[in-house]
Protein 1
Amino acid sequence: MAAYDTVIRGGTVVTASDMVRADIGIAGGRVAALGENLDEGAHEIDAGGRLVMPGGVDSHCHIEQPGSTGGTNADTFTSGSISAACGGTTTTISFSPQVRGRGVREAMDGYAALARKSVIDYCFHIIVNDPSDAVIEEELPELIAEGHRSIKVFMTYPSNRMDDAQLLKVFACAKKHGAFVCVHAENHDAIMWMTDRLLEAGLTSPRYHAWSKP
């Protein structure tokens, strides 16, 4: 009986700290051994002359995400995940957007159904823009307990922006239940003021977008 299900043999293994010439023994879907001249595997892959590294995790993806104006990102979970896999990415983390007046559970269930078309691993950031009592006291704690531990909030954009009191409600919920909050941190009023000045001056080419973002 073979010692490993698969042996990736003779490649240059890239770890977080080193690059070493080694074989990789895989058993039960996990890396079981790393070394030279490992015993035979039931399946052998010759990686001579190649780099062998862990799959990448793309932690900021917009895939088949419904927008506030009715549009949707061009990439579907099928096309986006295939493209990612071809580039060595084996996990994506995309954004499940709440619609104001509706819950985060409804948004997550619908978005997760789309993601089942993915050919690689995936998980989500939960966009919160309407932290109602039901969202804070029931839906977010339930989703966090299920493993959705990343929350995204915004300080600008009309469809997503929250005030300080709303942000603090989300922060307190995340702290209590063990989630992580990513903040899109911009000064909304300053952006709007500068945007108005640029429009009045007729400065509307793409280069002025950066000027509107102090």
Note: The chain has two domains: 4-52, 56-189.
Protein 2
Amino acid sequence: MRNILVVEDDIDINNLLVEILRENNYEVEGAYTAREALLIMKMKHFDLILLDLMMPNMTGEEFISTVRENNNIAIIVISAKIGIETKVEVLKKGADAFIEKPFNREEVLAQVEATIRRYKDYSGTVDEMLTFKEISLDKSAVEVKVENEVVKLTPIEYNILKLLISNVNKIFTKENIYSSVWEERYAYDADTINSHMSNLRNKLKKVNGKDYIGTIWGMGYRLK
């Protein structure tokens, strides 16, 4: 059974999300502040976090940054802050998906299922090493290195890189990437893809200054 942590300061919304998830056979804990959530995470393993942004003491954005310092757990943001800038910011900080409030029950369940499935693929144990120039991707250890320096990636970033490095000479459109990594029909969510691609490019580039991801204007992306 998959464990999910709901972090939401509104008691009614928190209870509703917990109820929806438990009815669908997830084991769920609820936290009403980000600091409470961090304490709970020290005592129990979770597969996914559903996170509100507007909370007291520590915001959702600050919580994501704190978690991403040493944890690659899947994070879905559910928020009434629906501006493009907010969405791009949380994706760059390391969130895997964004659901707008008021939310739809079916959308929440679909996003949870898809995100956990992607994370399961990310945590797979296939004994295979993929390489491109100074990049190595160890599928058995679920680890990426550039010039033997470990690069910490989120599950989405890891799966995008795995897709690109498995097909070095292929140009992937945004639709290709979305369909392969998110495993669902592309709905022209360009901001989401752009944010994850930017994060991945910057993390790889940080090691030695080299840009490994090429943008083919009007077509898509490939390694270069």
Note: The CA atoms of residues 174 and 220 lie 6 Å apart.
Protein 3
Amino acid sequence: MTDLTIATNNNLLPKLEVLLFLARQPLLPEQLARYLETSEEAVQQLITELTARYADPAHGLQIVNISDGYQFATKPEHARPLELYINTPQEFSLSTAAMETLTIIAYRQPISKPDIERIRGIDSGWIIKSLQEKELVEEKGQADTVGRPVLYATTEKFLRHFGLKNLQDLPPAPFLKMRESQDIIVEKLESPAVPEPEVAVSGGAEAAAEN
């Protein structure tokens, strides 16, 4: 191996490590070569070197080959702490924007993304996705409108998180008391009262009414 090859590998090795660490599924050599902007042969050399490094007992992770792809995995002897962590309910916090969006969904469910954004006045796609990842919101069919947008509703986990038996236990709008002791104002959820139209009465009708 030449000095240039060693220098190149030293530069690419940490990049390969980051890719494998962040990957949610095994990455094929051709994918890694494309991301690292190098050859598949160089990728194989890098994989061999990185695999040898993580074989050291000082590391809790290892590189595994799954269906010709590569990915980080926990070494079997260190699996127990991970199992305990996964099976322990995790607390999480919600941003003001997330709580506002969740409030809208809770009180107007099932509701579509366009309707949520109409109420908030801002794009809410990434917030809805985050709420789905936290399992507080789920898809509930599609609306019978143009484009048939997806409808969203709250989940059982939403009820457990906020200590509710069912949706009927939701506090009345315009406030929803959150666990973080923050009040989210949802006045926009309240449809403005539409005044009843005045009926024009002719003079003859008025006279008849008076009589």
Note: Residues 175-211 have pLDDT under 50 and may be disordered.
Protein 4
Amino acid sequence: MLTILFDLDDTLYDTASPFFRVLANYRLENSHSEEATFALFRKHCDAAFDLFSNGDLTLAESHIMRTQHTFADLGLPLTAEEAMHFQETYQKRQAEITLSPGIEQLLNELKSRHIPIAVFTNGPEKHQMKKFNALGLERWVPPARIFISETIGFPKPHAEAFTHVQKALKANPDELLFIGDTYETDIIGGQTAGWTSLWFNHRRKPEDEKVVLEPIFYSVAEMHQAIHDNISKRKEM
């Protein structure tokens, strides 16, 4: 049976919204577009998360590091205390997140078609579950189909993470359809595991020299169509 898995951050909701709500409280010297500013933050988030996953930093240290490096690039160095204040405010805003427009309709349609839905995300369990609950995802995803890297013991794109999820779902690789926004973790990891992996590249990240086996899409409407097309293709096989 087909199971459709979604990444959480920047796939089911827009991670930029709470970030910019907090950033508006700061006077920045360097002039960057919103897109460039958020790309800096995501770059430092990924680097800090890798160090946290490897045990080189505590979670709090990783939050301080990513915030300090981002603000340094934006021309406003922060102390560790100031960086933690930013993080605490950012987390409060994350409690107010909502599903991206069109996602609720998509999830309702999949549920009405009795297609199992799962969430597969990197991050600390407590932190990711707060976002899961804020989005009301329990309406579509039962606890047995929530997969968080800290609980698994390995983050995406490690093969062990994908193997764990596949075994937990009692599925074959060709029964899994995975949608994510990050090429390096979601798409490479999924393709290597033999899953059908769809790249939701709504941030318009560079696509040159990237090996992608399925069509790339850039909006929730296109995500909806890509999933529909994949389901239809499976019925024809």
Note: The mean pLDDT is 94.
